[in-house]
Structures are given as structure tokens and as C-alpha cells.
Design goal:
Elements lengths: L1 H22 L20 E3 L4 E6 L5 E6 L2 E6 L5 E6 L5 E9 L4 E17 L1 H4 L2 H4 L5 H10 L2 E8 L19 E3 L1 H5 L3 H12 L8 E7 L11 H4 L6 H8 L12 H7 L9 E5 L8 H19 L6 E4 L13 H12 L5 E4 L15 H15 L12 E7 L5 E7 L14 E4 L6 E2 L1 E5 L2 E5 L8 E4 L20 E2 L13
Parallel strand pairs: 1-7, 7-10, 7-11, 8-10, 11-12, 12-13
Antiparallel strand pairs: 2-5, 3-4, 3-6, 6-7, 8-9, 14-15, 15-19, 16-17, 16-20, 18-19, 20-21
Helix pairs in contact: 6-12, 10-11
């Protein structure tokens, strides 16, 4: 009986500790003051504007908050909820964040102030450094991971959770961690190499960086934004209706579920911006995706309340989607391109570094570097950096010929390693695209086919396995594009 009682007490203690850790680090657990799982020892707080801090306490309790030498106070409402802001101390640290009430206190230690990025998406974002390393043996891998350790880089992985209602904290305990070989082995490779490239630039060499990885493999874009935002679009109602008929409610593919379980608990933590690698699960439904992605970005921005924060996407890499038409991926690329019409949204190209036989191309180092180029140029003032490959600008027919001349932005030093370009197609008024000849000429691309006497439209990389061979002087690939606005095959896809 005594052993049974002891076992029961031990189990109760474990449960209490787990609950406390879900809201805060275990060392800071008490009955009166709680903060959500975003807050723990070793966290990074965003420099610049005031830091958002929130949680619960006794009803109507007044709390004194200290971050470094900066102070603030806040009084909880009748439900015990409170939220405030406090000015961050200078970049660096370590600092302590203390929340002190009448009879209890919470202290977070080894807190740094720097740049915080939210990294989200499906498996190509979730794919870890350990999975991406291509070295000969285990000893080399261990040495490589040891060389990547960085005390000024902190990592937080959001636990997987798919739920019907927005959560206020994580589904299980999660803490900020140092970038050690053990932690890094399981952490997002795209996110890590993005931060590594940032920290290699002299402007950020001494700036701490915090990465929040909120990703889940195989999940569609509609799962990552709120249900209320989706419901605003008539074109998405059939998609919502399809899932409403599914009786299994807490699954990751259900619209809104991953926003509820894995993004809502992060809001309104202060961030610099977001990087996004997702879309494979939406191939074949590109017309929907052209609505889903802008809606997601606008929804996140509104809820974080940080204005039009930077949002940087990764263009999906070439891959043969065996159950889809060869142009299904190209239509998804087109949807990604249309999302770039939003302010402060940009994309890192990957049309030259994919693997048509592997949906998870291993070269995440270059993906992260190209994302970092965008942030360095656009957010951190490194003006000399070329941050993008050539982007389609305009097309016109060369008078009295069967040729179209394509002009690009971000095209200085436009060239190809081949004498003639591949991946271009062209059509006349009949809208039947055929393979085209193409070459670089005077900083532009000239496209033609002897089978099309009167060309009206050109497409580039309109096939899921064609690899880019058109680059600017920075070695960055041109993005897939089309000059037409014809209806796409995915227009009639309901879900």
C-alpha cells in the first residue's frame, strides 16, 4: 500500500511538473504567475520595438517586470490575464527577465536580445541538419556538427499540434536551446543555414539570432492559417466544406488546425520576420494556393500586429510528381510568383539545386544562403548584395519576325553556361505551346520556334523536371514565369 501511494504521489508530481513546464520553465513554476511556452531560459527577444510579454496571474494583481535595467508594470484583469510591453536592453546579453508579483515571481535567465525569425512550412522546412549532411562517415558528421555550434544562436522547436481551436500555449513542453551539435542534428536545416549565413555577415556577426521552427511534413498551406481568414474567400468554401464532412477533426491536414496548434501559441511574440518553405502538398491545387498564400501572409501580419513584416518564401525545387500532370508544379510556381505582389514579400529561387527524383533535395545550405541574401539586402542594409535571380519583367514581339524578346529585372550579367537555353515554350493565338529555341542577346532573352509564325506568349520552366540554366552575374537562377494570363488547369479543382 505504501509503495502504491508513493507511486501515485510520484505520478502526480510528474504531471504537475509537466503542466508547469508547458507554461514556463519548471524552475519558474508557481501557482500565481504563468507565462506561455514561448518564454523560457535562453530565449532571444527581438531588438528594436518594445518586447511583448503576456501571461496570467492572480486576478487584479499588479506585476513589476524587469528586463536588464528596463522596467515596466502591469495589472492583471479580473480573469487574471495580463499583457504588456517593455523596452529591450542593448543587443547582446545575457540578461534576466523577471516578473514579480505580491507573493510570487518568475525569472528567466540567460536571455539574449537580437533578431528573431519564425520559420515555418512542411517537410523541406522540417528536414533537419542531420538529414541534410552528406559526409563520408559518422566521425566526419560529428566533427561537422561541432564546427556549427554557436552560443549566439538559440533554437526553439514548436511541438506538433493540430487542434480545432487556437491554443494559448504549446501542446507539450518546449524550451529555447543553445545551438549545440546535439540540438542542431534535429533542427531545421533551412532555418539554421539561413541564420548561419546571416551571422557570417559583418553586420550581424555580433548579433544574437533566435529561430522558431514551426513546421510539419506533408501539410498543406490551408492548415497554417486561421479558419476565419479562409472563410472570407468564396473560392475556398468548397475546400472547407470538404473537410467539414470529415469526422476526424484533430488532424494536420484540416484547414486552420496547424495555425491553431503551432502558430497561435507564438502570437504575439515579437519577431523580425518569417521564412516559409511549403507548397508541395498543394501541387495540383495551384489556383487555390494563389489565394491561400496571400491570405496567410496578411492573416499572420494582422495577428502579430507588427505591420508588414518580411515574409520570404522558398520556390519549390523541380520534382516529378508522379500522380500529377507535368505542368502542375509550374502552376504552383505561378501561384508563388503571384504572392510576390504583396509588400515586403520575396522569394529565394531553387530551380537549379533540386533533384527531380527526390522531393527533399539535400542542398539546404544554398537554400538558407539565398534566403539570407534577401534579408541582408532588404532588412539589414547590405546594399551591395544581389539578393534575387532574374525576374520576368516584360515581353514583346520583335517586329516582322517570329521572335519574342523577354526582359528581366535583377538581370545584370544575364548569361547561361550553355550556348542555347532550354525550358522555353512559345505559342500563337491557338494557345498551343511548343518547345522553343532561346538565347541570351544584349541582356535579354530572345525566344522563337519555326513552328509558330505569329507568337503571342512565352513560358519558362513550365514542366516539373526542367532545371534552370539562366542566371545573373551573382549566379542566382531565373524564376519560372509565363507571359500569358490564360486559365490554368487547376482553376476548376475544388479540393
Amino acid at each position: 500500500m505504501q509503495n502504491t501511494t508513493q507511486t501515485l504521489r510520484s505520478r502526480i508530481t510528474q504531471i504537475v511538473a509537466m503542466v508547469c513546464t508547458t507554461f514556463m520553465s519548471a524552475a519558474n513554476c508557481n501557482a500565481d504567475i504563468r507565462l506561455p511556452g514561448m518564454f523560457s531560459d535562453k530565449m532571444v527577444l527581438q531588438t528594436g520595438d518594445a518586447v511583448r510579454i503576456w501571461g496570467t496571474a492572480a486576478p487584479n494583481e499588479t506585476l513589476e517586470i524587469t528586463l536588464g535595467e528596463n522596467k515596466a508594470s502591469v495589472t492583471a484583469n479580473e480573469q487574471g490575464e495580463w499583457s504588456t510591453r517593455i523596452a529591450p536592453p542593448p543587443i547582446g546579453g545575457p540578461y534576466e527577465l523577471a516578473i514579480v508579483g505580491a507573493e510570487a515571481s518568475v525569472v528567466f535567465r540567460d536571455v539574449l536580445v537580437g533578431e528573431v525569425w519564425l520559420c515555418s512550412g512542411q517537410s523541406n522546412m522540417q528536414w533537419s541538419v542531420g538529414q541534410s549532411v552528406e559526409l563520408a562517415d559518422g566521425d566526419e558528421i560529428e566533427k561537422y556538427l561541432e564546427s556549427l555550434a554557436d552560443s549566439n544562436l538559440r533554437l526553439l522547436t514548436v511541438p506538433p499540434s493540430a487542434v480545432e481551436e487556437p491554443a494559448t500555449s504549446f501542446s507539450e513542453p518546449a524550451n529555447w536551446q543553445d545551438c549545440t551539435p546535439e540540438v542542431l542534428r534535429e533542427f531545421s536545416a533551412t532555418a539554421f543555414y539561413f541564420a548561419k549565413a546571416l551571422r557570417e555577415n559583418e553586420k550581424l556577426r555580433d548579433v544574437p539570432i533566435g529561430l522558431i521552427d514551426s513546421s510539419w511534413g506533408g501539410t498543406p498551406g490551408e492548415a497554417w492559417l486561421s479558419r476565419s481568414a479562409l472563410e472570407k474567400h468564396v473560392s475556398l468554401l468548397p475546400l472547407l466544406g470538404h473537410w467539414d464532412e470529415n469526422t476526424n477533426k484533430n488532424i494536420p491536414h484540416r484547414p486552420g488546425n496547424l495555425f491553431n496548434g503551432m502558430i497561435a501559441p507564438v502570437i504575439p511574440f515579437s519577431i523580425r520576420g518569417a521564412v516559409w518553405y511549403q507548397g508541395e502538398s498543394n501541387v495540383g491545387r495551384a489556383e487555390q494556393y494563389a489565394t491561400i498564400m496571400p491570405t496567410l501572409i496578411e492573416d499572420w501580419r494582422e495577428r502579430f500586429g507588427l505591420g508588414d513584416f518580411p515574409f520570404y518564401m522558398v520556390q519549390l525545387a523541380p520534382f516529378r510528381y508522379g500522380d500529377k500532370e507535368p505542368d502542375a508544379l509550374a502552376e504552383l510556381w505561378d501561384a508563388q510568383n503571384r504572392t510576390l505582389n504583396l509588400p515586403n514579400v520575396a522569394m529565394a529561387g531553387s530551380s537549379d539545386i533540386g533533384n527531380p527524383g527526390d522531393i527533399h533535395p539535400k542542398n539546404k545550405i544554398e537554400v538558407g544562403r539565398r534566403l539570407a541574401l534577401l534579408a541582408l539586402h532588404r532588412d539589414y542594409g547590405v546594399e551591395e548584395i544581389v539578393c534575387s535571380g532574374p525576374i520576368f519583367k516584360s515581353a514583346r514581339r520583335v517586329e516582322e519576325t517570329n521572335r519574342m524578346r523577354i526582359e528581366f529585372s535583377m538581370s545584370e550579367g544575364l548569361s547561361s553556361p550553355k550556348p542555347t537555353l532550354s525550358g522555353f515554350t512559345i505559342c500563337g493565338e491557338d494557345k498551343v505551346f511548343v518547345a522553343a529555341n532561346a538565347k541570351v542577346e544584349d541582356g535579354k532573352v530572345v525566344v522563337w520556334s519555326d513552328d509558330v509564325a505569329d507568337p503571342v506568349a512565352v513560358r519558362y520552366l513550365w514542366d516539373d523536371t526542367v532545371v534552370c540554366d539562366l542566371f545573373n552575374a551573382a549566379g542566382l537562377p531565373a524564376f519560372p514565369f509565363r507571359t500569358d494570363s490564360y486559365d490554368l488547369k487547376s482553376k476548376e479543382v475544388a479540393f
